[in-house]
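Duplicate of #3305? Posting structure anyway:
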């Protein structure tokens, strides 16, 4: 894979690097090494058509003639991150409730014991291969009706989709293993995230969409998606977490055009997320397919019995 494949040129990432002599045996032994690049902002250079520290931080960095460098990175550069033997850490990271401010948070796999001769060729320069992973979870929604209700002059209008009681803050530890297969800094759960706190409501859709039998992704303000060729719309990018009291909340309208004036009936529905799975995990995209269906009104007519009344006295005729 070429360097920068799928990574947009508008983004910046920051790099850590440690230097190791041949005597130290390289980073895979988890020797301390010496800090060579400390949280260096790296940006796209349109001249070389690649990323370099000079463009991002104003300083060039150079390969040593002996020894090796081990690299790690995170994206975007605007977030706070630290790096140690266990990898990248995001302390008390908060996902904004404003979906326009949510970001696709990335951390890289470690590029061990690199030398200039090992670089991936991407003319006109050779670069360190940085493979990013998604630290968060992507949430998408599709919506449709199970029948053509408009044929009967009923229109279903989606008004809002939100997820309530979502934990908005947590700490991420990459939790890399040492040469003996032991995690150098244990993570609290299998997500890599721990210390979840602060319940928030995240609104994925808040407009008015007429639904049809064709499933469509809900269109909201688009969140920057770091895979440039990915045409799907990401509604929410949230913290990986286990489900306890998180709920999916939906508002919609039934518009009855069979009466004059037409009648708009406001409706809502709430669903427990743990019915549809136990958790969101990092690096996974979850698609919730919302299908709106309604029971047809039928009638079961019956007629009450006559109440038999015998009148008295008799009606006397001819007497």
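Output from current build:
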């Amino acid at each position: 894979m070429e360097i920068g494949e799928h990574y947009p040129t508008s983004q910046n990432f920051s790099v850590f690097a440690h230097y190791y002599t041949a005597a130290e045996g390289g980073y895979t032994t988890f020797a301390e090494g010496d800090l060579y690049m400390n949280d260096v902002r790296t940006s796209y250079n349109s001249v070389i058509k690649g990323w370099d520290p000079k463009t991002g931080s104003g300083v060039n960095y150079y390969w040593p003639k002996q020894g090796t460098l081990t690299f790690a990175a995170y994206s975007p550069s605007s977030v706070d991150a630290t790096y140690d033997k266990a990898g990248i850490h995001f302390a008390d990271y908060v996902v904004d409730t404003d979906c326009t401010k949510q970001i696709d948070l990335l951390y890289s796999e470690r590029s061990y014991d690199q030398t200039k001769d090992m670089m991936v060729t991407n003319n006109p320069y050779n670069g360190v291969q940085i493979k990013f992973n998604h630290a968060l979870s992507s949430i998408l929604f599709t919506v449709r009706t199970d029948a053509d209700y408009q044929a009967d002059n009923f229109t279903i209008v989606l008004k809002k989709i939100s997820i309530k009681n979502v934990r908005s803050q947590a700490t991420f530890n990459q939790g890399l293993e040492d040469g003996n297969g032991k995690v150098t800094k244990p993570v609290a759960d299998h997500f890599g995230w721990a210390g979840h706190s602060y319940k928030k409501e995240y609104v994925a859709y808040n407009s008015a969409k007429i639904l049809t039998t064709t499933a469509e992704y809900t269109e909201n303000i688009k969140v920057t998606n770091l895979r440039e060729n990915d045409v799907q719309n990401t509604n929410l990018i949230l913290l990986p977490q286990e489900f306890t009291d998180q709920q999916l909340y939906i508002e919609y309208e039934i518009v009855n055009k069979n009466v004059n004036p037409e009648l708009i009936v406001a409706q809502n529905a709430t669903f427990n997320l743990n019915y549809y799975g136990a958790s969101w995990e990092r690096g996974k995209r979850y698609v919730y397919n919302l299908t709106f269906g309604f029971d047809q009104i039928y009638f079961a007519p019956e007629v009450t019995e006559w109440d038999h009344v015998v009148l008295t006295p008799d009606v006397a005729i001819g007497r």
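Confirmed duplicate; merging threads. Confidence is low (pLDDT under 50) at residues 1-5, 220-232. Helices lie at 53-57.
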